[in-house]
Design brief:
With 492 residues, this protein is of the alpha/beta class. The chain has three domains: 156 residues, Rossmann fold (3-Layer(aba) Sandwich), CATH 3.40.50.11190; 169 residues, 3-Layer(aba) Sandwich (Rossmann fold), CATH 3.40.50.2000; 143 residues, Aminopeptidase. It is built from 18 helices and 19 strands. It has a seven-stranded parallel sheet, covered by helices on one side. It has a seven-stranded mixed sheet with strand order 13-14-15-16-17-19-18. Strands 10-9-8-11-12 form a five-stranded parallel sheet, sandwiched between helices. The longest helix is centred in the last third of the chain and has 16 residues.
Length: 492
């Protein structure tokens, strides 16, 4: 599958558009798809992010996408795609509408448009709006074709996989605020970050504060100096946002894409709409109890206003706990998988097994089809299974992972590490034998291992007897056979 992304990643739009498209592109690539990004005015820092991700990047040079230049952009984009055939074209750009999309139907089999404004018409096969509005069901009305599939709400939020991994470690916040997080996106053209820092400098009383800004922030030096003076930690163009959210108890920041990242992590937030097009999103999310967003005028936001309402949140544990719980319920982190399925690709997510999985693991492992392919074909005893699970979960060199699709378990992978090699064991949950699931689960698990354990350089697997399914799985995955052992070099 080939997928092209036409994204507005300019300085003015910040990183929001790019990062949500990158999350989708990465997931599609995990399933073998090839992705190409088409952008104008791409800041150097964002270009480096795309290059590090391994995706092809082409910058459109002619003109811009300002008023009256939609036709020229359509021509430029068509030309940039003319060397290949494309299964999907994903468009995330407020300056492009149905006129542009109609012209691009010849360049790709299907079009997916990402929008959250509902202020223009679209000519697309799928429309994705990951925000939550009270009028979501009727929001796009006649703005899309009757046959268009609409993916609406934060169930489809395009979050990067690290948010899923860190989400497993967090719980709804219900204790004292011990750490604050401040983030207004990569661009922050009105320097709301600086305003909030002024308010917190008098309030925090030694409380640790993490401040996140983009590399292109116009007041970067001032913010870094202010953080240094106040004892705050400044993170520039960080790749650790999920970790920072997991470690924080309260956030202050902008609306937009980050709203759903915070919700998925159960992080209560004082949210500021930094542009008029965020007002409805923030207001509706506040009305549903997902964020705290008192009324104010965007241009008239003051340090005293921020200080006053930050104190309200810090002193109200019940309010923070309610937001945290509702946020995690609204955003489960499986949005990328859902969108991939709409595009014809199924995506598997991994999580570490926990003690709460004992019952399911016991049932799956005792299934006749699983025992028949195992070294020990005798039925497991519950007590011995519990002892085994406790031993595995407490051993840093034995990694037990559960693969999920849309929150439902599809398989189990275990890595037993010795030195720089890992022995891999894998089985599918009985009843989930969709063609290709085993190969995809193994591929995702290898990538997970390469990312989380850079000390591991190779994997091997032992296949019992004439298990043709397992022999085929490891052969097709590039493992070299040595008697009944398969081995493969891996790298990050």
């Amino acid at each position: 599958m080939r997928v092209a992304f036409r994204v507005d990643a300019s300085r003015e739009m910040g990183t929001g558009h790019l990062m949500r498209c990158l999350a989708l592109a990465d997931a599609l690539s995990e399933s073998g798809a090839e992705a190409r990004f088409l952008c104008r005015d791409l800041p150097t820092a964002l270009r480096e992010i795309l290059v590090r991700s391994g995706h092809e990047v082409r910058e459109l040079q002619n003109g811009s996408t300002g008023q009256g230049s939609v036709s020229q952009d359509a021509l430029d984009t068509t030309q940039a795609l003319s060397d290949e055939s494309w299964d999907w074209l994903v468009v995330d750009h407020y300056g492009l509408d149905a006129r542009w999309e109609s012209a691009l139907h010849a360049a790709a089999t299907r079009l997916l448009v990402i929008d959250d404004l509902a202020d223009r018409n679209h000519d697309c096969d799928v429309l994705l709006d990951q925000n939550l509005y009270t009028d979501m069901a009727t929001r796009y009305g006649d703005r899309v074709p009757a046959a268009c599939q609409q993916l609406l709400g934060p169930r489809f939020a395009l979050l990067r996989p690290e948010f899923g991994r860190w989400r497993e470690r967090v719980k709804a916040r219900d204790e004292t605020v011990r750490r604050l997080l401040v983030s207004f996106g990569g661009a922050d053209p009105d320097n709301k970050t600086g305003l909030v820092l002024g308010a917190l400098a008098e309030l925090h009383g030694g409380l640790p504060v993490d401040v996140v800004i983009g590399a292109e922030h116009s007041r970067r030096e001032q913010i870094e100096a202010a953080c240094l003076a106040s004892g705050f930690t400044c993170h520039v163009q960080t790749s650790r946002m999920a970790e920072l959210m997991a470690n924080a108890d309260l956030a202050i920041g902008a609306g937009g894409v980050t709203t759903w990242e915070r919700c998925s992590m159960g992080l209560p937030a004082f949210v500021v709409a930094v542009a008029e097009n965020q007002r409805k999103q923030v207001r509706d999310a506040a009305g549903l109890g997902l964020v705290y967003a008192p009324d104010y005028q965007i241009k008239g936001l003051s340090a005293s206003f921020v200080a006053r309402h930050t104190l309200v949140l810090m002193e109200n544990a019940a309010l923070r706990q309610g937001m945290s719980q509702r946020g995690m319920e609204a955003v489960d982190g499986c949005g990328v998988s859902r969108v991939c399925r709409q595009m014809g690709v199924r995506s598997i997510d991994l999580r570490r097994a926990a003690h709460e999985d004992a019952g399911n693991l016991f049932e799956w492992r005792n299934h006749p089809s699983i025992r028949a392919a195992s070294g020990n074909r005798e039925p497991l005893e519950w007590q011995r299974h519990q002892e085994w699970l406790r031993s595995v979960l407490s051993d840093p060199d034995r990694l037990l992972l559960i693969g999920q699709e849309d929150g439902s378990a599809v398989g189990v992978v275990r890595f037993d590490i010795a030195g720089d090699a890992a022995e891999v064991s894998i089985y599918l949950v009985p009843g989930t034998h969709r063609p290709g699931t085993g190969s995809q689960l193994l591929h995702v698990a290898e990538r997970w291992l390469a990312s989380c354990r850079s000390d591991v350089r190779s994997c091997r697997a032992r296949v019992v007897g004439d298990n043709r399914r397992s022999h085929g799985l490891f052969s097709s995955a590039g493992y070299d056979v040595d008697s009944t052992w398969y081995s493969k070099r891996i790298s990050a």
